[in-house]
Amino acid sequence: MAHNASSALDETLNRLSTKPGVRSTLILSKTDGVIIRSTGLILESQKSSADPSADSYRDEHDKKQKTAEEVAKMAFSFVNAAGALASGLEEGDDVQLLRLRTKKNELVIVPGKYSSMQCWRHAIAEAGLQTRNTS
Q: Checking phi first, is residue 49 left (phi over 0); if not, alpha (psi -120 to 50) or beta?
């Protein structure tokens, strides 16, 4: 049974990561936000390199790019805040889907029923999505 769930999870991650504009996918523990699986983002442990020439590029690139751990922490806080809002509105209610869209990114989070949540991040321009002009 656990093997089927794991292969279904792998299949979902592979399918999502091939969609246009998807920069990363994360599977997080629902209890503490620890990354279970990820694609597309640099992990903190991968930032160190034996190649000094790669470090100068990485340092400049990392100023703009969040690590998987940073995104996981922000997503976990977002889910917890939304969960508090949902249960505050109606006791016993749960968050089913969260979608945050900015000028440059779209974050979609699907909290799992028991132990994990899925999170993926789109680049708006790369996905061919249009932003609304609010002026």
A: beta
